[in-house]
């Protein structure tokens, strides 16, 4: 793989060498070694400044080291950080109330990573299928989509359609059926009496910011409800203001039975994830059915409470909607058609699709890094742009200038 000729200092090179020598090589990072962040900006070990247009895959919607998050971290860390669920703590209850009220009611179950929350949703859907829908034991089916991304556990990669995610990691768990994304009729055809749930991303982020046809989510929701199938929205990446609404499903008239959240739920400070849903599903769990040592710990909950308040107080949904429109309109008008096939997305979850004849996404993301804009290719010809939602308009204007120049360079 051709490495970019980014002028790396000895210090930067030293850190990369440590990764190469002692780490597992399960990532291919852009060779930038970050040491500090503030809002939409990050600095490398040599003090060079970059605009962060990835936001840790949408986990830093609130911006780097938000002062309110820093204050909450210090305050809660000096009180109590971990109790386990063997006891109650004074942060979990208020967090559950605030989160469920934001989601329109119901109950919530806290976990840590996104993948754990997806695992939890699968367990809940199956339990609901056996207890409520009366599916025969071990026959429950869950419908998922082609090119899905729901995490990296062995169960989850078992229903991935990406050969690399699966290769050499089998055997896999059964009970999943893959259908094309964006095709509601395919869902209708896939449902059998044993189908307990449809698990879907409202926009497929990792697949390259694939926006389904308008009305798709509403139609799937309707089909699920008609067939007594749970509609599960994985909003780990699309949720929490990223697409211009608090949740992406709110762009359409639908109501998921289970909502899966993660990433920005911890404001970039602490891993926390959740499954939110109605009592008719969440209420089926009994003590001992499920758990997590760190899930619902007071430090995570305190930080998440502040993370949710920031989203609302700073109206980051509106910022994402407005700046997203600016981003797409400007680039659609300015980028050369010979190089860029499409600019797509919603809110501040966007992608540039490059003409294969114009080179790889990696080439352009490296060019952008040289210009001080950090974005990461997600597929061979796709670059995703997902800056912190606190990004200032003048920073966005500057980034657009850099993107235009990088794509017009030859
Ligand atoms: C990131 C992501 C996950 C997995 O979250 P982790 O915290 O990395 O386990 C699951 N689903 C979607 C849609 C994601 O973007």
What does this entry look like structurally?
The two termini are 22 Å apart. With 410 residues, the protein is of the alpha/beta class. 36% of the residues lie in helices and 17% in strands. It has helices at 10-22, 55-58, 67-77, 92-102, 114-131, 154-158, 163-166, 184-190, 216-226, 279-282, 298-313, 316-334, 361-370, 393-408, and strands at 34-38, 41-44, 49-52, 107-111, 141-145, 176-179, 195-200, 230-234, 258-261, 273-277, 340-346, 349-354, 373-374, 376-379, 382-385. α3 (67-77) runs antiparallel to α11 (298-313) and α4 (92-102) runs parallel beside α11 (298-313). The strands form three sheets. The chain has a seven-stranded mixed sheet with strand order 4-10-9-8-7-5-6, sandwiched between helices. It has two domains: 32-65 and 316-408, Aspartate Aminotransferase, domain 1 (Alpha-Beta Complex), CATH 3.90.1150.10; 67-313, Type I PLP-dependent aspartate aminotransferase-like (Major domain) (Aspartate Aminotransferase, domain 2, 3-Layer(aba) Sandwich), CATH 3.40.640. The longest helix has 19 residues, at 316-334. The model has no long low-confidence stretch (mean pLDDT 96). The protein is globular and about 60 Å long. Pyridoxal-5'-phosphate binds at residues 57, 113-115, 118, 149-151, 201, 205, 234, 236-237, 262-263.
């Amino acid at each position: 793989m051709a490495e970019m000729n980014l002028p790396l200092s000895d210090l930067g090179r030293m850190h990369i060498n440590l990764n190469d020598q002692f780490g597992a090589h399960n990532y291919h990072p852009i060779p930038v070694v970050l040491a500090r962040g503030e809002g939409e900006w990050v600095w490398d070990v040599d003090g060079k400044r970059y605009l962060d247009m990835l936001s840790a895959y949408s986990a830093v919607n609130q911006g780097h080291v938000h002062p309110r998050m820093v204050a909450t971290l210090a305050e809660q860390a000096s009180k109590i950080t971990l109790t386990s669920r063997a006891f109650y703590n004074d942060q979990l209850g208020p967090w559950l109330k605030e989160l469920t009220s934001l989601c329109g009611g119901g109950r919530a179950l806290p976990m840590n990573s996104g993948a754990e929350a997806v695992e939890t949703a699968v367990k809940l859907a199956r339990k609901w299928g056996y207890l409520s829908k009366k599916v025969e034991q071990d026959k429950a089916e869950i419908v998922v989509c082609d090119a899905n991304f729901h995490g990296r556990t062995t169960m989850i990669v078992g229903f991935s359609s990406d050969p690399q995610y699966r290769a050499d990691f089998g055997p896999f768990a059964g009970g999943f059926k893959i259908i094309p994304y964006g095709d509601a009729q395919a869902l209708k055809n896939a449902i059998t009496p044993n189908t307990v749930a449809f698990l879907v991303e409202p926009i497929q982020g990792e697949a390259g910011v694939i926006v389904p046809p308008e009305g798709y989510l509403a139609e799937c929701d309707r089909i699920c409800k008609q067939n007594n199938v749970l509609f599960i929205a994985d909003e780990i990446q699309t949720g929490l203001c990223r697409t211009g609404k608090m949740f992406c499903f709110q762009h359409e008239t639908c109501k998921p039975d289970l909502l899966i959240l993660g990433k920005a739920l911890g404001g970039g400070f602490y891993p926390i994830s959740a499954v939110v849903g109605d009592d008719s599903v969440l209420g089926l769990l009994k003590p001992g059915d499920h758990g997590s040592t760190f899930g619902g710990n007071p430090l995570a909950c305190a930080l998440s409470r502040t993370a949710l308040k920031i989203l609302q107080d700073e109206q980051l949904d509106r910022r994402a909607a407005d700046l997203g429109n600016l981003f797409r309109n400007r680039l659609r008008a300015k980028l050369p058609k010979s190089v860029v096939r499409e600019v797509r997305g919603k809110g501040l979850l966007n992608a540039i699709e490059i003409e294969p004849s114009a080179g790889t996404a990696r080439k352009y993301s490296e060019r952008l890094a040289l210009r001080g804009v950090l974005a990461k290719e997600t597929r061979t010809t796709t670059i995703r742009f997902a800056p912190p939602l606190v990004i200032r308009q003048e920073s966005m204007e500057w980034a657009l200038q850099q993107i235009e120049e990088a794509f017009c360079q030859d």
